[in-house]
Amino acid sequence: MSHRSRIDRSVAVVTACVSVFAFGAASGQEDAGITEVVVTGSRIKQNQFDAPTPTVAVPIEAIQRSGSTNLTDFLRTMPALVSSQDDLQNTGSQGYIGSTGLNLLNLRSLGEERTLVLVDGRRHVAQLPETAAVDINTIPMDLIERVDIVTGGVSAVYGADAVSGVVNFVMKKDFEGLLGRVQYGGADAGGARDSYASITGGMNFADGRGNISGSIQHTERGRLQASDRSYLRGANYTSMKRNPNDRDDDPAVPDEVPLNDIRFFDSARAGAIDVDFDGAPDTLPDGSAFEIPTFVSPFYAQGGSGTPLADYIGDLLPDAKTTVASVFGQFELSDTVNFFGEAKFVRGKAKAYMQPTFDFSLFQSADNPYLPAAVAAQIIPGAAAEALEDDTAPDGVLVSRDHFDFGVRGEEATRDTMRFVTGVNGSFADRYNYEVSYTYGQSEIDALALNNRYNDRFLAAIDVVTDPSTGQPTCRSNLDPTALPYQPFHGFDFSGPLSFTPGANSGCRPLNIYGEGVADPAALAWIMLNNEASSRVTQNVFNAFVSGPVPGITLPAGDIDAVVGVEWRREGSRSVPPMEDQMGLTFGNVILPTDGTFNVKEAFAELRVPILADLPFAEMLQVSGAVRVSDYSTVGSTTTWNTGLLWAPVRDVSFRGTVAESVRAPNIAELFSPQSQTFEAIFDPCDVSELANGTSYRAANCAAILGALGVDPVGYIDPNSDTIPGVGTGNSGLSEETARSYTFGAVFRPQFIEGLALSIDYYDINIKQAISTADAQDVANNCVDQPTIDNVFCDSLTRASGTGAITSFVVQPENVASFRTRGIDFNLNYLLDPSRLGLDADIGTFRFALVGSRLDRLTTIPTLGAEQIDERTTADLQSGTYAPKWTTTFDTTWEFGGLTVNYGFNYFSKTSRYTLLTLAGNPDQASRANIYYDAQETHDLSASFDFLDAYRIYAGVNNLTDQHPDFTTIFPVSPVGRFYYAGLTVSFGNR
């Protein structure tokens, strides 16, 4: 689901040294009740108050009481994970090929590739081919004990990819009993239905020495189309476009304003016909004039006859089904040896529809029998020959069309994931622990492209003539196999292989494109296809470590604890696109297979040294550190490290800090992707309207580039009005990126206010030599926004001599970028028991939780020597990077007997729809009211009741006040709107 929830319903997000409040400890219980566990961020066993790494832990009760059946949707309410991708970001026009249904976590807005997702401290196989990105749908919800979110680099503990931090799903062990849960929900405005069912069971055997448990979970999330929301339909849809009343760029008039009824100016669903070959449509198929009342950009008009932009939004949420089956087992062979194993199978299916195929300037000869008489009467003899400067060009017209009636393109992704863990752990010599484990994971991904198109068949089918023997329309190639379609404006190369053999038996059926819904179904069946890409991702991890006190050394404050271990990991990914796509026969880009593997051998060590204990102004003082040495088959040797300090001058207050250096090795896609064709629209940064929207270098660099091509830079207008062909490729010469991170904080647990705990932490993450793959627009912008045009971005761009038009580009990853983010996290938790206040009446207990973050910096330097780009307080909907200054979640929970009532409030501050760089260079970009997206302010309410010792009924509503998104469709809140849910839980012998 895409309804948003909050962080805590009962147990609360907790904030001691690892921010895991045991409420008893926070309310004055003795430390003796605190057990030693493996806290995320270290493999050294310790209690949760003795770790220097700031961690927020979310218990399963908080997730279940949110009503969310989508873990990512819930976790996005956490300040550190606000930029994570749930179904909204990966559906329809918001997503990309292969992303439908994926849910990926993104810590600190630094990218999912820099966020390491673990399950019980172990790596998990990816579901996005050629990456390490884990689909959170593969985690069984009811088996989760808690979710730990660690900020800062912990590569020394867990290896590469943990640059921004770690999200660790800690699963339940020794489950005994039976737990069943069902839930159903739906949106108040319709659509987006949500159902969930799970059953979890476990039992002990062999006098408690063994345990086996398992879970089956099934989730279904319903499709939501843009047309399901009235404000996204047709003329109602509003977007920011160039102000038609600011043609002369008056600094007192905003450059962009919100406009409704935006349409493509040069195409129509039924066909926009250009009879005079001047590049603008003149008529519709019925002979009526094609109207373009007001241009608002090179691509769009307000009103008129063109296709509404709203028609291209596509689905907002996919039709998704996920089944997760898990088995856990362990058996204690002796007091020192325990065998354990896990097995999991996940099948996820998600289907969504995006946009139709479309074509511009399709040549249609005058002898086409489908050509309407009203259009034929407007043909200008010789217009084609004059426009093409070719006396042999036949008479005809140009048709630009959005082919909705052919079927909207979509994607149906099926992902099968298997994961197996086996190992042995235990203790020896009374004080030492060990673990040896092997993890294997495999994901099989089949992505079926729906309503794809054979380009060669389509062009043959619309090249229609009259069969002299029957008097009926037929494909020209049926009569003359050498007569390939005449398409001087289309750019299709007929010199390569075709998907059919021209001639009488080709199967070609004539296709009428003059009007919507007039095509022969048999013709559509011949030109359209569903074709499937397949991928396999594999992961092998061997890990072994020993932990315990360093022998022979005991300090006055205690033992020195240590961990030493080794790890070997192999990652592989292979993707095979459909042969039709590899051959360039289908609508879209040429896509080639990708096949890559790498392995890494590592040795690691951790140390915790107690310096002082139980002394005045030193209740506890300890230092810790970790180091990992790695040898990659791709980038060679790397070394990562971290060190931490924890000081509690008195029992009520402790201070903590860490410094770490982490690395991220390039993934398979960044290293091994072959050259593949792509097409992207680029707004030329040298266009007169764009010159002020970049750095101080842009104008001079544009003048130098255009001048060298013989083009006057003054008043230059981008001559392109269509997408531009380019090439995307990997880069085998990449090296690792390195990050230095700092965290400093304090934890307050005052004994004089029982039940209160507060933590405040500062973080600073600085990434150097970052791997960055700029899109085509960024390539064009970065080329002219650098101190000099002698840079890798200008090398990747080609312009035409005489016109200056961008004609091609190359996008590939480079070690050129720098990222930096810093801010302050704060967590406040208070358990109020009125009986402590001397009240005789039993009115239950109240819990309050406030979790928030202030973002002080989020900057990017796209290449060495470039100006810094400040992304703080902005929201980039294309990349999904959201950077509000303030993000907070507040919860209050009342528990009385079996009744629990919770109220939650989710908030993040307003964000700019434009970069700060654009606003600095163009203060009149928009009016103040339209510069910013509204703040997110959603209210959630839920209640549950326990009865008969085994049953719980619950219900709730999210987004109680029905806050609507901006006219951007998905931000700052979901278009789902107000969402209701209800469920039942049955539990027998559960512990």
Automatic annotation (TrEMBL):
Keyword Lipid biosynthesis in annotation = no
List UniProt keywords, sorted A-Z.
Cell outer membrane, Membrane, Receptor, TonB box, Transmembrane, Transmembrane beta strand, Transport
Q: Where in the cell is it found?
A: Cell outer membrane
Q: How does it sit in the membrane?
A: Multi-pass membrane protein
Taxonomically, which superkingdom? Bacteria
Q: Where is the TonB-dependent receptor-like beta-barrel domain?
A: 412-960
Q: What is its main location?
A: membrane
Sequence similarity = Belongs to the TonB-dependent receptor family.
Q: What is this protein called?
A: TonB-dependent receptor
**Organism name:** Steroidobacter gossypii
